[in-house]
Amino acid sequence: MMAKYVFWKEEKFWVGYFEDYPDYQTQGESLEDLKDHLRDLYKDLVSGEIPGIRKKALLKVA
User: How far apart are CA 16 and CA 6, in angstroms?
Assistant: First the structure.
């Protein structure tokens, strides 16, 4: 399974979040470390254990 994410480099850390979950960011000391943290974050987000998660979606309106 694949999930799109956004990432960038700040002074000391790489920061990122999943496009479907923009309210939940994580960081890592390297790009690979960030990817590990993103994988862990994704497991938490889809587990149903975190209440009130906002998600992006598309809706056909016409």
Answer: 5
Q: What is the per-residue pLDDT across 11-61, written as a single tens digit (0 to 9) for each? A: 999 999 999 999 999 999 999 999 999 999 999 999 988 899 988 888 999
Q: Which domains does the chain have, with CATH numbers?
A: 1-62 (3.30.160)
- 39-51 as b/e: b if 16+ CB within 10 A: eebbeebeeeeee
Amino acid identity for residue 3 in this structure = A
Distance CA 18, CA 23 (A): 9
Q: pTM for this one? A: 0.86
Q: Is the dihedral of CA 8, 13, 16, 22 positive or negative?
A: negative
